[in-house]
Write a structure and sequence with these properties.
By secondary structure, the chain is an alpha/beta fold. Helices cover about 35% and strands about 10% of the residues. It is built from 14 helices and eight strands. An eight-stranded parallel sheet has the order 2-1-3-8-7-4-5-6, sandwiched between helices. Helix 6 runs parallel beside helix 8, helix 11 packs across helix 12 and helix 12 packs parallel to helix 13. The longest helix is centred in the first third of the chain and has 16 residues.
């Protein structure tokens, strides 16, 4: 297991989170500096028994991480972050991830814990070189499709005005910041919202071997007829015609995880599978520490069912890597005013362990039954 703490953001609230983290670091009261540090804590039992290797982190400048050094606080501006993104900074970090893996810094099955989903591109570049494309499938579990260009997202944002919509007949949610509504405010670049398009365009991932599962920004039938969304709808249509498979949250809620994901994985003509999960798949339900939380995600049982279906699938396929991205460090374990306490770490830990086939090894409660949200032991071979 290795970490990538890249966290560029032009969102003023997220920049305030970083400022608080930096002050807490200076005061010696920091809980977690980044998601990797947090996740290594919940798999200490595996590390102690030599079953999971903590392989360290890809080096990221302090000001671009969730917990900047106090001396870097003057750099925490939206302008600096936008400049980093627009000038290709995310792509440079993805290349650092690729180099990290190709140098052998993480042995065995690579398992990345990251903030910005663009870092997944670096892992896929390394694995495509190692395994080739013909036998490598990719499952992306995410509330948003990270394959749209900025101009297409702006079109969607103008249509829905950035509001969260759970009505299947209404416009889907989009995480596009309000000031990006003006097209000249940002440039097309490789980033957390476009990395998957780059993987497809660059031939790192084959469209007919890609499943995007759980999205909330898929165009409804009514939207497909609206001329205001011509570029947005056209982009989705082009990806579908190329062979990409999309499954919406609405489909999951109607047919269940097993009824949607299972048949797709069974039919996938590839013996190797990479799994990439964005924490926002469970936002405002199973997960309360996701980077983007503008739509209600799946509940914990649906999240665990995805892992169970994957575990069954992987009895006949090779897992070549996995990652968990999109975690908001500042919110991990927080108690909110409505009384809700974030349980992101527990939920994601259960997901990974279940996926790897160790669901039966939860610690036992008084009634002798395993509880997926209690302390437990499990084995794994992730690094």
């Amino acid at each position: 297991m290795f970490g990538v703490a890249l966290d560029p953001t032009d969102d003023e609230l997220k920049l305030e989170f970083k400022t608080i983290q930096a002050r807490d670091l200076a005061a010696g009261r920091i809980r977690f500096k980044n998601p990797y540090e947090a996740m290594t804590g919940v798999v200490q039992d595996l590390t102690a028994r030599g079953l999971c290797q903590a392989s360290g982190e890809v080096e990221i400048p302090s000001w671009l991480t969730p917990t900047p050094a106090p001396s870097d606080m003057p750099l925490l501006t939206a302008e600096n972050n936008l400049r980093f993104i627009d000038e290709g900074g995310c792509d440079e970090v993805a290349e650092s991830v690729r180099a990290f893996l190709e140098a052998g810094s993480a042995n065995g099955i690579p398992a990345m814990v990251a903030v910005d989903h663009s870092t997944t591109g670096g892992v896929l570049r390394a694995l495509a070189k190692e395994h080739g494309l013909s036998d490598m499938a990719l499952l992306v579990v995410d509330s948003h499709f990270d394959g749209l260009q900025l101009a297409e997202r702006i079109e969607l944002f103008r249509y829905g005005k950035g509001t969260s919509f759970d009505d299947p007949e209404g416009p889907p949610a989009d995480p596009c910041p309000a000031h990006w509504e003006e097209e000249e405010a940002a440039q097309e670049s490789y980033n957390c919202a476009t990395w998957l398009k780059h993987m497809l365009d660059d031939g790192v991932v084959r469209p007919d071997k890609l499943i995007v599962f759980g999205i909330s920004d898929y165009p409804t039938p009514a939207m497909r007829q609206d001329p205001r969304l011509s570029r947005y709808v056209g982009a989705y249509r082009a990806f579908e015609e190329a062979g990409v498979t999309f499954v919406t949250k609405e489909e999951i809620r109607q047919k269940g995880v097993r009824g949607t994901l299972g048949p797709l994985l069974d039919a996938m003509a590839a013996d190797r599978l990479y799994v990439s999960l964005d924490a926002d798949i469970g936002s405002l339900d199973a997960v309360h520490a996701a980077r983007f939380m503008n739509v209600v995600g799946l509940n914990s049982e649906e999240l665990y069912e995805i892992a169970r279906v994957l575990e069954e699938t992987l009895r006949g396929k090779e897992l070549i890597g996995l990652d968990i991205c999109g975690i908001e460090t500042f919110l991990l374990g927080r108690k909110f005013p409505n009384g809700t306490t974030d349980r992101t770490l527990e939920r994601l830990s259960v997901f990974v362990r279940t996926l790897l086939g160790h669901e039966a090894m939860y610690s036992r409660s008084g009634n002798g039954r395993g509880s997926p949200d209690t302390r437990f032991e499990a084995v794994s071979d992730i690094t």
